[in-house]
Amino acid sequence: MSDKIPVTRIPTHVPELDEVANVLTEGLKKNFANVSVAVVDCPDLTQPPFYLSSEGICGNPRLADIGGPPYLIPNAQRDKIFKFKDIAELCGLPNAFMIGAGAGPAHIVGVNSELMNNIKYAADGKVTNNAWVSKLDSQTGECILQKLNAEEFCLMGNFLLCDGKPGKVIEVKASKRTGDDDFMRSLKLSLRAKYGEQPVGLGGVFLVEKGKIYTHIMDDFSKTPLTSQEMVDNWLKFFTMDPTFICVGELVSHDPGYDLRDEHFHGFNMNGQGGHYHNDTTPDEVEYRGYFVIPDGIYRVDQPEKPLKF
């Protein structure tokens, strides 16, 4: 199956971690009153409050950008079904630890959903799958968060893949948001300002430890083609969610012409909430803490033939 999926490897610029820490420090100060960025040993991410499937995010880090919104909009292409193991093999890391954001497997979940990928493939064949999906209750319209007892997803995905080992990572702490840009966008624009058209990726996990979070959950597939941003916004269902909110995903500072999704993080908490991270809604209270690595390439998997027109 995987040998039939087109894939292109895009090299990325890989600056030293110390240099990136300095770049992020200066950039984040434009939007946050309190900023601390340092190169540290990765904490054990299997422990609370992270609940990830491997202890670290180091060892051969790379990004995978699979499919994309053109497979959902204007009409859902329900045959776009991917297996996590196939993606790991296509990215040259068959025993990958994989985290990130995507669309859940509608053919398994029953409806369209948001995916928080969190899976580890071991060399001995053991699979540690702590992935979640969030969907809308068909009766109440409220969020349902559930474990994903499957190894598939649909339509799109933006994942960090690595060996899942301990090692040096960039720790980012930021609190009291003073600007308009959210945490994720602040990171991306900091890198873009420094490196211009040299694509620099960032993948990992961050926590919203205090403050409320603005999120969305996709409704079930629209029966009407979604032909404008306004229609998409009306179709999505927006929520305010609670800390501690655990976000997994990746971003890239520049798209060198591959229709990359330049930022994509999904999150969940242990109170039954989960969805696509947009921003915080309590800027004076919010506190972020994240751990990131710099990948050495991006694997563009099954790129749609045409990008979205809006």
Q: Architecture in CATH?
A: 2-Layer Sandwich
Radius of gyration: 18 Å
Number of helices: 5
Q: What's the CATH C level?
A: Alpha Beta
| Mean of all residue-level pLDDT scores | 96
Fraction of residues in H or I helices? 10-25%
Low-confidence stretches: none
Classified in CATH, the superfamily is Hypothetical protein, similar to alpha- acetolactate decarboxylase, domain 2
According to CATH, the fold-level topology is 60s Ribosomal Protein L30, Chain: A
Quaternary state of the chains? single chain
Whole-number tally of structural domains: 1
Quickly give the structural class: mainly beta
**Major sheet details:** 10 strands, mixed
Q: What is the global morphology? A: globular
